[in-house]
Each structure stands twice: as C-alpha cells, then as structure tokens.
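FORM 12-B: Structure-to-Sequence Request
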C-alpha cells in the first residue's frame, strides 16, 4: 500500500517516507553493478571529482615525463648523433619547443632537468621560463614536470607494498586466529610503539653513501613498507572476523574448497572497499613522508624530485620565492588531490558514513 502527497513530493511505503530524489536514485540503480553505483555516487561529489582530475593529471604527467626521459636516454646512447656542447638544443639533449608563425623565438616547454644555462641564472618566471630558473641556471618548470615521476612512483610503490604485506598478514590472522593472530597483534603493537620517522632517518644515514640514482629511496621504500603495514593488517583482520562466519564461506568449506581459495577468492574481494580507501589516502601520506625526508636533507641528490628541490632552495624563499614555491605547490596539490579522492571514495563505497 503506497500513498502519494504531491505537496511534500514524497512517497510513503510500508511506513517509510522516501523523497522524490531518493526514489529516482533507487530507480536509476536497478540492475547496476556495485562499481557502477560507486561511480555514480562519486560523480555527484564535486570535490571528489576535482580530486580525481588532479590525480589523473599528475599520473599522466609522471608517465609522460618518464617516457620523455627514457626516449632521451635511448636517443643519446643508441643513435649516432653529433652532440654540440655549445648548443643545449641539439638532438642529443632533451627539449620540447613550441613555435607559431610570427614568433621571433620558439618557447622551450621542457628542457632536460639537469641541463644548466650559465647565462640564465635565477631568472624570475617569464614566457621563456614559466617557473623561472634556479641558481644553477636550470629551468624550474622542467624540474617540476620531471620530478613528478619519482614523487608519484615513491607514493604508489611505497603504499602498494605496505598494503600487500598488511593484506596478506591480516587475511591469514583473521581467518586462522589462534597463536598466529596473537603473535601478529604483538608485532603490530611493537611497530606502533616505534618512532617511524626517526627510524627512517636512521636507516637513511646508514645508507647515505649509496650512489645509485634512486638507490637511497629504494632502501627507504623497503624499510617504510616493513614498519607501516600494521594499520592495514588490523583493518583486514577485522573484516575477516566478520565475514568468515557468513553462509557463503560455510558453503565453500562444505564443498571442500581450500583455505587459500576461500581467503583470496571469496573473503578478500568483499574487503576491497576499505583497502581502496587505504591505498588512496595512504599514497598522499607516503608522498608527503618522502617529501618531508627530502626537505630535512635526507633525500637522494641523484634524482629529480619535488622534495629534494624544496630542500635545496628552502632558504631562498624570501629572495627567490619561485624556486621553492613551485615544488611546494606540487606537493600540496598532490596531497590535496588524493585526500579529496579518498574522502569521496569513502562516501561512495559506504554512504552511511555521511550520516
């Protein structure tokens, strides 16, 4: 039995009052899959879509910059070209220019991030150098562009490694319980009691003589993953405790399914929602952690990254503000984009949190 009140534009059905907007949403989601519903909810979140656009742009920028550097390396090592040391725009040096009819000089969009122009030192932002140049005569716009590769890679690799370790250990702990679960809880308590940032600094100091490009960051990623998986493991463990008693799990056990099949084919896929949120929000935190390490002088001088440039020019904020400002802005927008997207995904995956 249902009654319609045109003045209130609501429908009362079985004692529950549903407004017209809710009814349209229910009608539109009939027959839709879970991720289709999540995408529809996400599209209605303005701030979440802004975060998605920022994250997508940063990922594309990191991919493009990586391909450009790899092409430049291949071109320099494998193609017989005459490199003119007096001409930074020779074919053996990476650059992308922009020219229109009537322009006296082409605009150099991207230069090799390590190329130095002795006669273009500490120039403020201009048409030729949109972000200015640093004290070494390097184009800041190019360094910010190519710095996206290492910065984004550190965030993704560091967080994904952490989540994989935490997911595997949390799954086994939640499913089997017993002695393994007790042991895991004691390890997690031990990890939470350790000062993570200080330990990272200590590890970096131990490997400060690593001269391989990105080698110091590789050591930090490994160590960061080994001490940061506790939170993920606890969340996955709690989900397994609530799901392993469900009927579909009992049915799989009755059919003789192996434990690993039940864990990774049936229970874990039903725990993906919190994992996606952990990954999205965790990437922002990981990027910020590595930027903070570089800011305090514990980065890797052999690579181009936003944190290392921010540390290099932090004392020039008052005299040459464009040098530390643009790397700092990139870190800010990266963390902002992932946080906005993570919050929107949390609401889309579990709308009850909005209440």
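FORM 12-B RESPONSE
SEQUENCE OUT:
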């Amino acid at each position: 039995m249902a009654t319609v009140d045109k003045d209130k534009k609501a429908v009362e059905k079985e004692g529950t009052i549903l407004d017209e907007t809710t009814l349209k949403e229910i009608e539109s989601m009939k027959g839709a899959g879970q991720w289709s519903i999540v995408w529809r909810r996400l599209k209605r979140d303005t701030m979440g879509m802004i975060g998605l656009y920022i994250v997508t742009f940063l990922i594309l920028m990191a991919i493009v910059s990586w391909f450009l550097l790899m092409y430049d390396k291949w071109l320099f090592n494998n193609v017989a070209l005459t490199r003119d040391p007096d001409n930074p725009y020779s074919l053996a040096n990476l650059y992308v220019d922009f020219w229109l009819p009537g322009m006296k000089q082409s605009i150099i969009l991207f230069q090799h991030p390590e190329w130095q122009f002795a006669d273009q030192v500490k120039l403020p932002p201009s048409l030729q150098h949109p972000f200015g140049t640093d004290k070494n005569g390097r184009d800041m716009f190019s360094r910010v562009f190519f710095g996206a590769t290492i910065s984004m890679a550190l965030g993704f690799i560091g967080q994904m490694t952490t989540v994989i370790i935490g997911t595997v250990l949390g799954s086994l702990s939640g499913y089997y319980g017993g002695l393994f679960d007790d042991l895991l809880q004691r390890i997690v308590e031990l990890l939470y009691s350790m000062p993570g940032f200080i330990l990272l600094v200590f590890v970096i100091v131990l490997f400060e003589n690593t001269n391989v490009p990105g080698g110091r960051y590789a050591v930090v990623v490994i160590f960061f993953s080994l001490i940061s998986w506790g939170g993920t493991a606890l969340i996955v463990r709690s989900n397994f405790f609530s799901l392993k008693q469900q009927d579909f799990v009992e049915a799989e056990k009755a059919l003789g399914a192996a434990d690993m099949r039940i864990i990774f084919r049936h229970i874990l896929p039903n725990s993906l929602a919190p994992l996606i949120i952990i990954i999205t929000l965790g990437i922002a935190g990981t990027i910020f952690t590595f930027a903070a390490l570089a800011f305090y002088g514990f980065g890797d001088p052999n690579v181009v990254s936003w944190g290392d440039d921010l540390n290099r020019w932090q004392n020039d904020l008052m005299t040459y503000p464009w040098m530390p400002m643009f790397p700092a802005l990139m870190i800010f927008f990266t963390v902002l984009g992932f946080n906005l997207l993570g919050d929107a995904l949390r609401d889309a995956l579990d709308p009850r949190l909005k209440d």
